[in-house]
Amino acid sequence: MNPPALLLALIAAASSATQASPTNTSCTPEAIAALEAAASKGDFRAQFWRGTQLEIGECGPKDLERANSLLRQSASQSFPPAVHVLGVILRREGKDTEAIKYFEQSAQLGYQAGFADIGFTYGQGDSPVRNAVLSYAWLTVAIAREANAPLRAYLESSRAKVARALPESDLAKAEYFAAGLREKFSSVPVWSDKQ
């Protein structure tokens, strides 16, 4: 993943982790046991949080198999941060086509980082799905939906770089696709963990 996309993914993950975290996510044995118990009972937030801890090796050694299982369980309950993180993992593994499916699913659930990460994935120079027109279009939708001014500015800067590389005819196509995407997602509310 390129540095700007990694930066946005980390910002989004930190934001979603704050919103999606159970009461106690410390690394004490009691907190870990409580997360495991809640996860085993199907609590999608606990599954997401514990899966994320195991994915990055927080609170103990990495356990990618268990992390993936917990994240998939959480995602199967349509928890947007879990759906998105599965996309991030797939993109990290070089499975961009599969990652885009998860990013779009998280976008359909209103998860802001999903919109941006589709745009970034299509914009990666080494990606097998590279498509500057679609990168521009998805970044345009991400900008329109983003309330956080610094993140919006970052997205605008990223889209401007994509636009500079597009011929005028492709820029018109990108604007056309962006209008269609804005219409498609106009009725999708921005996800909040308070829903």
From TrEMBL:
Keywords tagged on the record: Signal
Signal peptide (from-to): 1-20
Protein name according to UniProt: Sel1 repeat family protein
Biological source species: Ideonella dechloratans
